Amino acid sequence: MRARMRWFLVVMVVACGGGGTAQTARAPRETADEWSKTSWERRHDVMTFTVLPNMGRLFQGFRGTTAPDLTCRSCHGKDAEAVGYKMPHGLPPLDPRRLPDESSSDPRIAKMAKFMREEVTPQMADLIGVGVADVSCFTCHPREERPE
Ligand code: HEC
Ligand code: HEC
Fold first, then answer.
1. 31: CA distance to ligand 2 center in Å?
2. How confident is the model over 124-134, as pLDDT tens digits?
3. Using a 6 Å cutoff on CB, does residue 72 contact ligand 1?
4. Atom of ligand 2 nearest to the CA of 70
5. Cis before residue 28, ω within 30 degrees of 0?
6. Could you report the per-residue pLDDT of 70-91, keeping only the tens digit for each?
C-alpha cells in the first residue's frame, strides 16, 4: 500500500511536469485532429523527446526495475523501422470482445490490464496531446482476428 502511494506521487510529479523532468511538449494543447495532421517527422520527435522518456518512467515504476528499459520497439515491434513505425504493430493482439481486465485468472495479466487501463492509456493520450477518448487499447495493440 505504501509503495503504491509512493508510486502515485511519482506519477503526479511526472504528470505535472515537475521541474527537471524530460520535455513535455504539450502546450498549446493539440486536439486529436491536430495530431492526425501532424507530420511523421514531428511525431517522431514527440515520441523521442516526450513519449519514450515519460512512458519509460511509468513502466519502470510498474516493473520495479532500477533503470527505464522501455524502448521504441516495446510498443512498435522488432521491425519498427521497416514498417515506418506504423501502429498498431508488434504487441500481443487483444480480443475486443474479451478484453483482459482485473478479473483475469492469470494474476500477471490482471495486474498488467489494470496498469494499462488506469495509467498507460490515459498517459499516452496526455503525451500526444489528444483527448482520452481518442486513445484505446487498440491504439497500441492489434485486434485479435478470430473467426466466430
Ligand atoms: C508507449 C508506447 C510507445 C513508445 C515507447 C513509442 N511509441 Fe511511437 N507511437 C506509439 C503510438 C500508439 C503511435 C500511434 C499514435 C496514433 O494513433 O497516431 C505512435 C506513432 C509513432 C510514429 C508515427 C507513425 C505514423 O504512422 O505516423 C512515429 C514516427 C513513432 N511513433 C516513432 C517512435 C520512436 C522513434 C520511438 C522511440 C524513440 C517511439 N515511437 C516510442 C506508441 C509508442
Ligand atoms: C501506449 C500503448 C499501450 C496502450 C494504449 C495499451 N497497451 Fe497494453 N501493452 C503495451 C506494452 C508496451 C506492453 C508490453 C509490456 C511488457 O512487455 O512488459 C503491453 C502489454 C499488455 C498486456 C500483457 C500481454 C502479455 O501477454 O504479456 C496486456 C494484457 C495488455 N497490454 C492489455 C492492455 C489493455 C486491456 C489495454 C487497454 C485498456 C492496453 N493494454 C493499452 C502498450 C499499450
1. 24
2. 999 999 999 99
3. yes
4. 12
5. yes
6. 999 999 999 999 999 999 999 9
